[in-house]
Amino acid sequence: MAKLFLFLASIGLGLVLTCTATVYTVGDTSGWDISTDLSSWVAGKNFTVGDVLMFQYSSLHSVSEVSRDAYDNCVATNAIQSSRDGNTSIPLSAPGQKYFICGTMSHCLGGMRLQVSVNGNQASSPVGAPLAPESNDQVPTSLPRPTNNVNNPLPATPSAGFLFHARESLHVILFSVLGTILWMVMI
């Protein structure tokens, strides 16, 4: 029975250590906005596969994932993906350089663009966040609606899933399983 306990404990510990995605709110409290110093915000951050970028912005803005050339020229016409819903989560699902711009060219030229370097590989990553809906018609009612306040991003909405509290959720599961096993051994 001790071997079974050791085996389950090592599996649980392995899960706790591998399921640690980070959700980054782009621009922190300033959000995805032309007044935010995005080059300073990204400095020193270590993005890995499985992390999520959460863009919060007013109805004056949008977010588009684009190619390097489109990033350099602030062109959003052939975007990889684009959103205008005011609360966009983009999972970082592959390693490499990722480029994001505001679809309004003058905003992009004014500094509203972001380049992130994603480290890691997909084999060791946890499940990513769901993709944002394609139009405002499909936005679930539980999400906050965008505002017209340029410097007032929407508050982050915590998730009940593993993405926001992966380590804590796995600790609860691990201790529940271990407690059940110990209870069964005592009987």
UniProtKB/TrEMBL annotation:
The chain crosses the membrane at residues 169-186. It comes from the Eukaryota. Residues 22-120 form the Phytocyanin domain. Residues 135-149 have a biased composition (Polar residues). InterPro entries: Cupredoxin, Phytocyanin-like, Phytocyanin_dom. Keywords: Glycoprotein, Membrane, Metal-binding, Signal, Transmembrane, Transmembrane helix. It holds the Pfam family Cu_bind_like. One of its GO terms (cellular component) is plasma membrane. Gene3D superfamilies: Cupredoxins - blue copper proteins. GO terms for molecular function: electron transfer activity; metal ion binding. Residues 1-21 form the signal peptide. CDD domains: Phytocyanin (cd04216). Residues 125-149 are annotated as: Disordered. This is Stellacyanin-like protein. It comes from Cinnamomum micranthum f. kanehirae.
